[in-house]
Each structure stands twice: as structure tokens, then as C-alpha cells.
Amino acid sequence: MIERTLIITDQTQLWYALGYIPRQPLPLEVTVRPHKPQRSDLQNRRLWKLHGLAGEVTGYTTDELHEEALCRHFGYTEQQRTNPWTGEIETKRIPMKRSSSRNKPEFATFMEATEILYGQTLGVWLE
């Protein structure tokens, strides 16, 4: 059986799901919860535009700024690894959460915190 996620937004989809479930082989695991839409493309574009403006001020890449913002907002773990060119042991910070898996309200909170950070420390903000 292929794993499926059903997002039900109207009665027609509900009736489809109610007809689909009994036709599946047992045992079957079913989880029902309110749907929280993932962050929107517009939200994501706005964040990366902000990172770009901050990059113009700091000289850091958008990817570097994004990783730093994730670590500041969601926390991080540290990972030891060996630099393949120098052989030296380095410590890398790994964010506890990624922005791509946040729902709209969570992403909005992350975006607001990032805007405040950049505005207060770098004088960078979006209109």
C-alpha cells in the first residue's frame, strides 16, 4: 500500500476519504488532526529577500545568514567534524529546526524575529 496524506477541505473530499479508508488492507494507522498549511512561497521569498539585503551589509551569503537566523531562533546542536583540506577538527552549529517544515504561523514568528534582529543590529528591514 502507498502511504497517503489526505487534506480534507470540503464535504466531497471527506466522502472520498470515508470511501477510501475501508478499501485499504489491515492493519491500518489513521491519524486525524487539524490541518496547518505550510509556509507560503510569498513568505519564503520575503525571508530570502531580507537575507539578501543583510548580505549586502555584512558580506555573508544568504545561506550563511539563513543558518545563523535558524540557530538563533530555534536553537542548535554542535557537531564536531574534520576539515577535509586542513585535517583540523571544527565545530559546526546545526539548527534544531528548518524553516521549510514550519507552518504559516510558525514561519511568521521566525520571520518577525529575523526582521527584528536584522533591523536592530544591521539597520536592514523590508517595507
Classify the oligomer.
single chain
Q: In order across it, which strands form the biggest sheet?
A: 1-2
From the helix content, strand content and strand pairing, which structural class follows?
mainly alpha
Largest sheet: 2 strands, antiparallel
Average predicted local confidence, pLDDT: 94
Tell me the distance between the termini.
49 Å
> What is the H/E order?
HHHEEH
Number of strands: 2
Question: Helical element count?
Answer: 4
Morphology call: flat
Beta content comes to 5-15%
- Helix-residue proportion: 40-55%
| Radius of gyration over C-alpha positions, nearest whole angstrom | 21 Å
Low-pLDDT stretches: none
Describe this structure in words.
There is one protein chain. By secondary structure, the chain is mainly alpha-helical. It has a domain at 41-122. The chain contains four helices and two strands. A two-stranded antiparallel ribbon has the order 1-2. Helix 2 crosses helix 3 (62-74) and helix 2 runs parallel beside helix 4 (104-122). The relative contact order is 0.15. The mean pLDDT is 94.
